[in-house]
Each structure stands twice: as C-alpha cells, then as structure tokens.
Write a structure and sequence with these properties.
Elements: H1 10-15, H2 17-28, E1 31-32, H3 33-38, H4 44-56, E2 60-65, E3 68-73, H5 78-105
Antiparallel strand pairs: 1-3, 2-3
Length: about 110
Amino acid sequence: MSRPPASGDVFRAVADPTRRGLLDLLAAEDLPVNDLARSFDMTLPAVSQHLRILREVGLVRERREGRQRFYHLRADPLREMAAWVGQYERFWRRKLQALGAHLERNP
C-alpha cells in the first residue's frame, strides 16, 4: 500500500532519507536533476518524484536553463520544523540538567 504524497507537509517530506539527502546536496549549491540523480541508487524518474514532493512543500525551486532543470534549496519552510523541534530540545535540556543535579546529590 502506498502512502499519499507529502503535499503541504514539510515534516512528512523530510522524513524520507532520500529527500533529506537531496536537501543536503542542494544546501551546498544549485544542481541539475541529472547530477542529483547520480548521487542515489535509483532511477531518474524516482529522483524526480522526490523532487516533486520537495517542490510541493516549498523546500526546493526548479528553474530551467535550456534543456536542463536546476534545483535550488528554499530553507524557509524548515523554520517551522526547527521551532517545533526546539521545544523538545528545551525539554530534554531541562531533563538532563535535573538528572545531573540528582546524580551530584546522590553519587
């Protein structure tokens, strides 16, 4: 059974390791789809499908230059994710500080 596309859901889009890998590559530079596809052990249409999902949620932008399609990272949608994850970072920091204090009191 296949899952519905991650349309509009940045969290679901970045849950896939291939899509995270694409974002990592695009963080360094804009790349054509063929260069992106060479970094993965999958077909060009499969990589294009992952890029489509990233485009739908606004994480990448596509531009055409002649016959090539170049992809560009748009990291703004990741801010929502970072804010959400930040809540849990604060939670764990407090928990670890409490654990440290407990261990200091009770060696």
